[in-house]
Amino acid sequence: MSVLVYTENWDGKFKKATFELVSYAAKVAEMIGSTVSAVSIGKVDETELGKLGNYGADKILKVESENLKSLDNQVYTDILAQAAVAEGAQVIIISHNNTGKAVASRLSVRLKAAVGAGLIKLPVSTEPFTVCKKVFSGKAFANVVLKTDVKVLTLTQNSFELVETENKASVESFAAEVGEPKTVVKDVQKQTGKILLTDAEIVVSGGRGMKSSDNWGVIEELAGVLEAATACSRPVSDEGWRPHEEHTGQTGKIIAPNLYIAAGISGAIQHMAGISSSKCIVAINTDSDAPVFEYADYGIVGDALKVLPALTNAVKEAKNK
Ligand SMILES: Cc1cc2nc3c(=O)[nH]c(=O)nc-3n(C[C@H](O)[C@H](O)[C@H](O)COP(=O)(O)OP(=O)(O)OC[C@H]3O[C@@H](n4cnc5c(N)ncnc54)[C@H](O)[C@@H]3O)c2cc1C
């Protein structure tokens, strides 16, 4: 019996989100009196694999093959299903990112397992196995009972803290049958020199209140000094002021940074659905009745075009002290 966690890597390196997932898996294993087996797919060196032990993995199953250079949902699902059966996994934990969403649903069919998708904290109880997720665009929480023997859980990024342990994990090659990928990636164009929105600890975001794309310099300057990513509301990307990949919300990216600065954003429910899990929200708006202030930890009533440069200067001064 074990808790199986899929530890995704990017060019052979794990990110913080992976370690959060392993920390979460270790706590779930503790709750059900089990151990953690981590599955790593693709080429990752032993030192990097060893880091998974520091967050609570007991055993690491590595699967390497020429066919695993890029993600193919069906092939990856197949490997995880084989690992789950071999390890007698009761619970399988995956990140609630694009990979996780694609793989979890396939795994659930394959293993006849219920899915708890987009979880935000540890299971509320194990008897019955009850998980907690946000519903109605973040307006409410739902406790969902998963009744199947095997459960698949996807965890929202940045919703669980890293827990370091003294654990040492064993690393084994797992001889999975690896099928031919049906999806072939011909070309990858990576963003360079930019902090990815989904990885960012700090995000500076602008809405229609910024008035025009010409005013984005003040957002970028603050993001620069804070080493933050930039984001925007949907009308901003619809207007073509910013690229669509920056749009957050119900129909955009769902993020949970440590700090989200919302400038000239009204706080419509569809926007907040994508960012309300942020640890700290700072809102800047000229309208003191703007809905965004209901969600904000700190609110500044004022013109974003003046407040943002003042914040940038304050951060620069604080850094120079
Ligand atoms: C099905 C559906 C899905 C949607 N999905 C999304 C989504 O994923 N993401 C999303 O963002 N929206 C989404 N929307 C749109 C959403 O309902 C809102 O219309 C949108 O979020 C509003 O964007 P905004 O806050 O930038 O603009 P506005 O609502 O126009 O708000 C601008 C704000 O800026 C303030 N302001 C004006 N001037 C200044 C200034 N100088 N300084 C500071 N503040 C100023 C104003 O007081 C106002 O509060 C969706 C809508 C629907 C129907």
Automatic annotation (TrEMBL):
Keyword annotations from UniProtKB, A to Z: Electron transport, FAD, Flavoprotein, Transport
Keyword Transport annotated: yes
Gene3D superfamilies xrefs: HUPs, TPP-binding domain
Co-factor note (free text): Binds 1 FAD per dimer.
Coiled coil: none
Cofactor needs: FAD
Binding site for FAD: R208, S233, R234, G264, I265, S266, G267, A268, I269, Q270, H271, N285
One GO molecular-function entry: flavin adenine dinucleotide binding
Domain (Electron transfer flavoprotein alpha/beta-subunit N-terminal) ranges: 3-188
PROSITE patterns: ETF_ALPHA (PS00696)
InterPro entries: DHS-like_NAD/FAD-binding_dom (IPR029035), ETF_a/b_N (IPR014730), ETF_a/FixB (IPR001308), ETF_asu_C (IPR014731), ETF_asu_C_CS (IPR018206), Rossmann-like_a/b/a_fold (IPR014729)
Matches recorded under PANTHER family: ELECTRON TRANSFER FLAVOPROTEIN ALPHA, ELECTRON TRANSFER FLAVOPROTEIN SUBUNIT ALPHA, MITOCHONDRIAL
Similarity-based family: Belongs to the ETF alpha-subunit/FixB family.
Protein's recorded name: Electron transfer flavoprotein subunit alpha/FixB family protein
Native organism: Mariniphaga sediminis
